[in-house]
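Hi U.,

Before I forget, here's the chain from the pilot set. I'm dumping it here mostly so it's searchable later in email.
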Amino acid sequence: MEKINRKVTKANGDLVSFSNEKLIKSLKKAGASNDTIAIILSKVKKEYYSKMDTKDIFKIAFSLLKNMQTPVAGKYKLKKAIQELGPSGYPFERYIGEILKHRGLQVRVGIIVQGECVKHEVDVVAKKGDKHYMVECKFHSNSKTTCHVKTPLYIHSRFLDIERAWRKQFGDESMFQEGWLVTNTRFSEDATQYGTCVGLKMVSWDFPEEGNLRELIETSGLHPITCLTTLTKKQKQKLLKKFIVLCRDICQNEQLLTEVGVPQAATQQVMKEATAICEVTP
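Structure:
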């Protein structure tokens, strides 16, 4: 495959060399064939302009994938699909809960927990064996939004208040073992440094190197319904309002599509894409 030796502008404004390898890797991860990848690289080269934005490269690749390998297009847009779980953060909280369930944890979402001083609403409370976890989810619909140090500072203080209450109730061997802070974008350097220092498990789109959000999603195979290119934005929002966040839910219950107004003629197309994304047999 011919290399593209050009400069592109990242979402954060940095000007970097275009990486063939990075594009190829992301396309292969999504399941694109070698022929499709070659066509996409050729198209990007042909349409390149000075300081081209990475968003434009994504649009070119996604458009071609949608026409050539529709389920692959759904997987390729994973990061954008997570951003489309908004506008509220609740679907993202449920989605994180589902990922933790897949990892064998018992999960409750949106729980009011009494601290020593005040009550706190904890996004996700999880348990596995005798270990307990509290998870705060920070959702952003804009990929440029960064979680700064004030977020782990605030989260850590809340978890300390709850931990003190639990120690009083259950003794020195507190039920609470670990606090998590999960975001779909990125942490600032100070946020990562502080969170790690005080013992928070920090998880962003690409942090840590092993066990980041992208990896947790890809290893679980739990893709959000917003990955589906055969559903309209309105239909996706209706599903989210019914607390349906996974493509798997649609694979297991076709009736959900009827309930949100998907025409019968389009249902099989949606089911075909959802099944291919989930890699399950209906």
